[in-house]
């Protein structure tokens, strides 16, 4: 069995381990490798991650873990990797600078680097630093040859051959300058949009609420902007959002809601709101927490041209029958292994360095 298969196998076992942490509850299962050593510890890490970052509720952490457990199966991993020729002859060291906006947001990069046979040097965000080191330790127990291939650092990055960095538009400029001599993927701010026609079913709008509110809207895959036809009636939209009304009891969310509402009222902006979500007509894609922007479109053709021109600002397009690259309602925060951020094939990049 090749080294590559050992690493794939480690991730399959990790998927089984993570399957114990689901939205139906956290329950210890039988026949999970090294479970006695890791189960209680990981449960504790979830608690610590939440204490360290109020946005990382148990519900949201478990949602992320459940998503990964469903992807890390033999069938899905093999299906994803079948079109690549993975080589492990000369492993390079790939530095990854991770964002911290949603739980385990850097995990896909982590998976790509290891599965392509390279070593990884990780600089985590202080907002999300508790889960991944524990997961890395689990993988090393399953496949001891991973020991020495995974390194975390809080210091200045050095001794690496390539870099994948995710940050804001400001930090991206710094990254581009700083890493100009290395092969790199530098990711900037992106947001996701939903295109509504007014003919959406109640179920589709219900699913859209998941795309908007999951992780409090903090992910680049969360919908922060709606495109709606002229004279669109928002009643059905607000009705579908209502099941998330408890979100306002989360302090950090409520503070953002109150603050942004006060700013809009003082500026005399027109906006509609329902007590936990505001919608405001705005050209921008990046809306503040507790707010979704909307923009009217006159024709589908004009909208296609606009979205085409703005493609570097957009991560996902949620729609039904609008374009080949659209995502169905309710699926933005359930990406598949081949759903690469910014449409840049990370594995292809890693196989070239």
TrEMBL record:
GO MF annotation terms: acyl-CoA dehydrogenase activity
Pfam family, one: LuxC
Keyword line: NADP
GO BP annotations listed: bioluminescence
Keyword NADP: yes
Protein name: Acyl-CoA reductase LuxC
Organism of provenance: Olleya aquimaris
């Amino acid at each position: 069995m090749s080294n590559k298969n050992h690493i794939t196998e480690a991730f399959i076992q990790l998927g089984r381990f993570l399957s114990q942490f689901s939205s139906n509850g956290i329950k210890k299962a039988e026949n999970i490798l090294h479970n006695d050593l890791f189960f209680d510890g990981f449960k504790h890490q979830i608690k610590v991650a939440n204490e360290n970052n109020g946005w990382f509720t148990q519900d949201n952490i478990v949602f992320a873990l459940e998503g990964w457990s469903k992807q890390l199966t033999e069938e899905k991993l093999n299906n994803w990797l079948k079109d690549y020729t993975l080589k492990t002859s000369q492993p390079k060291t790939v530095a990854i600078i991770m964002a911290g906006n949603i739980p385990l947001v850097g995990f896909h990069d982590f998976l790509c680097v290891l599965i392509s046979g390279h070593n990884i040097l990780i600089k985590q965000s202080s907002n999300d630093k508790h889960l991944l080191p524990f997961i890395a330790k689990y993988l090393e127990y399953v496949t001891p040859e991973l020991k020495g291939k995974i390194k975390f650092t809080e210091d200045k990055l050095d001794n690496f051959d390539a870099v994948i960095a995710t940050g804001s538009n400001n930090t991206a400029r710094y990254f581009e300058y700083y890493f100009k001599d290395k092969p790199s993927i530098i990711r900037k701010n992106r947001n996701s949009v939903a295109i509504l026609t007014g003919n959406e079913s109640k179920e589709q709008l219900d699913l859209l609420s998941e795309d908007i509110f999951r992780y409090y809207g903090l992910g680049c895959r969360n919908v922060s902007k709606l495109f709606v036809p002229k004279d669109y009636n928002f009643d059905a939209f607000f009705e579908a959002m209502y099941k998330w009304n408890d979100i306002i009891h989360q302090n950090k969310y409520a503070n953002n809601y109150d603050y942004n509402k006060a700013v809009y009222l003082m500026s005399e902006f027109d906006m509609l709101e329902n007590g936990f979500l505001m919608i405001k007509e705005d050209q921008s894609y990046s809306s503040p927490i507790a707010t979704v922007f909307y923009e009217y479109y006159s024709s589908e053709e004009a909208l296609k041209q606009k979205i085409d021109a703005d493609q570097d600002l957009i991560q996902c397009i949620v729609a039904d029958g609008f374009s080949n690259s659209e995502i169905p309602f309710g699926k933005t925060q359930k990406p598949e292994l081949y759903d690469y951020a910014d449409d840049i094939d990370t594995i292809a990049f890693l196989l070239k360095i």
